[in-house]
Amino acid sequence: MARFDIKRVADFALDRADEVLAHWAPDGSYQGAEYIALNPIRSDSSKGSFSVNRNTGAWADFAADEKGGDLVSLVAYLEGVNNGEAAQRLAAFLGLSEGESIPPSPTYKSKPKKPAGNSWEAVFPVPLEAEQSCPTTHPHNGKPSKVWEYRGQCGSLLMKVMRFDIQKDGTRSKDYRPLTYCRDSNSRNSWRWKQPLKSRPLYKLDLLAKRSKASVLLAEGEKAADAAADLLPDYVCMTWPGGSKALGKADFKPLHGKEVILWPDNDAAGKECMLKLAAILQAMECKVSVVCLESLGPKWPAKGDAADVEAAGITREHLATLITEGKFLTPYQSVVTEHQAQNKGGSNKGPKSGQFIVNDRGVFFPVQGAEDEPSLMRICDRLDVLALTRDPKGRNWGTLVRFLDPDGIVKEWNIPSEYLATEGGAEVLKQLYSMGLRAEAGQQPRRRIVQYLQTAKSPNRYVLVNKLGWHGNAYLLPNETLGTPVEPLYFYSTSPDLNKIKFSGELQQWREHVACYCKNNTRLLFAVSAAFAGPLLNLIGMETTGFHFFGDSSQGKTTLLKVAASVYGGPDFVRTWRSTDNALESIAASHSDGLLILDEISQCDPRIVGDIAYMLGNGTGKARANDRGGVRGNAFEWRLVFLSTGERTLDQQMAEAGKKAKAGQEVRLLAIPSDTGSGAGIFDELHGFAGGAALSRYMVDKAALFHGVALYTFIRKLCASNLEKLASQIRRELVNFAAELSDDVSGQVRRAAEKFALVGFAGELASTAGITDWPKGMAMEAAKSCFSAWVSARGGVGNLEDRQTLSAVRLFFDLYGESHFTRWDREDFTADDHTVRTLKRCGYRKTLQDSNALEGQACSETVYYVYPVTFKAEVCKGLSDRKAKQLLAACGALERDGNGKFSIPTRLPNSGRNPERVLIIRPHLIPVEDDEEKGLLKKKAA
């Protein structure tokens, strides 16, 4: 391989600087001799921190505190290579060969132009159809000698890294190239030989998901990670793409709270890299240890990593001995202390005036010390600025910060920018101190904290949202966004662990050990299908939907919930009704476009359970003052499917507090009997198990082992599909379902039927996608079965309010027919003088004998003459008296006059000769259940 004089290449490149800059830092502009551009290896959204001098080649990246004196060092920085390699790449670009004299500078007057399609971003995960078109060779390097696949927690491909062993002119070198599937600003998709600009995934996320309780070992580079995995099989050995200079671009959130071991390369740069990484992990509540390189012995090579263990004569058994004896690892803090001692507290570079310095020891502000020597004033513990935020409307800007409280617990707060403009930022300081930030005493440090927050810059921009689920065509999960959002999203919650979505095991394992045993079991099929229905609500604009399984204890109701929960996560995905209504708002928002599970309705206060059911179904919480930097002024919003259980229905639970469920509450929480009538509780078929209890235990145990992957796969397939076409398909299915209903079915039942139909469709969609492996049509039949059971449990297909009104009127006459109505059995217009005096009289009652009764079968009826005012105030208390009159007249229990009026002029006892208008009611004609005999489905033609 040709070798070049670095200075000669730098001088030659300077004469053609415009070409070089347009190629390596495109889309820039000149301010005098300074070329200002976005740093192409960072996800900057604004220019200013990265510049190159056109006349000298000197460059600086102020955000990363990196700089250089010529264009060769610039290329080395941007390409992540040494200066020698950078000179070769630069010479190749300029067409300069070894030994060639430097030609005169070309005339090049035009400024760099923005290349077409320069704006691009990675697509995670890679769509299934795109995997087939993934390049297997590099256009210049040929076939790779090694390929590392980065896969997501559910095994889906995210990106690749390829190694190329290059032989040229008798010299052997290696080149690493990332390969990412991207979408440009024109929505064109293609594979690119580039790293993702941001949120780069970790290597071996799929293994981490399978072994969620194992400790993690991080090494620098895929080769080192694979070598460490062979040596230490008890650990999940991982790395990140891009090496030490790309720490800030990697997404380490999947390691939150885990025990992590760092294996540094045996050089200063490797150790410095792991120190920075340790700080990142500690902020994520990780327990961090570092491999003690001295324990590997004197033969451990310089720059050595895990891939050099065999060459150093170290065996797996030797490492196991070191671990057993406690010599292999050293606590992170002791490494930090040693590093600080070696560097005497930090870099020997003096701080620049006006710049804050942030490290593990805190936030510092440069000041002038004695004899104008620069020194640092500590103002507070480490306080990291993660991003600048704004709401979806571009308002309510804020600064997202993170720090550790005195107990080492990670705290995050999105500080509204307006707080910094009032009372010198006193409200900000008050809240930070309350959350546990420790600051130096005195006015000066407090002022500097506010100044630090006001002047802090971050290349990261997030749209602040207070709900998970769909945002445009992107689906936001707690730690990942599937699909492509218009802008990066950040789910902000004061309780980030509200959503328990977790991944464990493979989809095939969940399918074989959980979904398989739902077959031919209508309640299980329906519950699992309901879990898939949550993400479909938004596509057709359907409201939040709830289903409540009720019945005696030990029928398997909680099993239903845990099996349904396994679509999303483990057993802790199941919550209880014990949560307060205020807490449920944030919980519901964190389950938006998904599934919320609430077990045992009896644990909820009967006085508020109806309000909670209504609030959940309404999809909107109360607007509250926001002091934690959420989306200010916006109430929580959600759209979800929620499942509930209990021995009582919602109406029965409310009755304990003297309340009655309204139709709006009932249709938001549809009560389905959990007992299928087969004698095995929730089960129709036991699949060879000895009983329902045995099958229940098996399914619960397996759901705890294999979960979450079904949801991930389902959402991924939704994001890859035509959502508008899918929405049309759903609507057609709902219409087809409704077409089977008889004409007697009320509007309320039809509204409920749509919800059952959506659940059935969701189950069918999951089956078609290969997620559940259920036979075609089985999920929809289960939905129809549960719909019929719901109709039977509610008493028929009629309107609930109508039934409740008629029942209330009939109950009034049953309870107070004798005490509130004076007996009037005489032929004249006087009341019976021998009866007990009537208190709170509502009218009169007369017993009539049926003259058409058969001989020996005397029959009578009691007719009530009710004052209109008392009918409204007493009989229909809490009801619509007009509606009650219409319903009574419709069933023949209320007489009308010749003009169709409900009240009829009648001469009443002791009321003189002038008749009074009264309602003449025959309560025995009021049906107890007016629709039990009405059919649910249309009769099929013979």
Automatic annotation (TrEMBL):
It comes from the Bacteria. This is DUF927 domain-containing protein. Pfam families: DUF6371, DUF927. Residues 369-633 form the DUF927 domain. GO terms for biological process: DNA replication. Residues 159-265 form the DUF6371 domain. It comes from Microbulbifer okhotskensis. Signal peptide: none annotated. InterPro entries: DNA_primase_Znf_CHC2 (IPR036977), DUF6371 (IPR045951), DUF927 (IPR009270), TOPRIM_DnaG/twinkle (IPR034154). CDD domains: TOPRIM_primases. One of its GO terms (molecular function) is zinc ion binding.
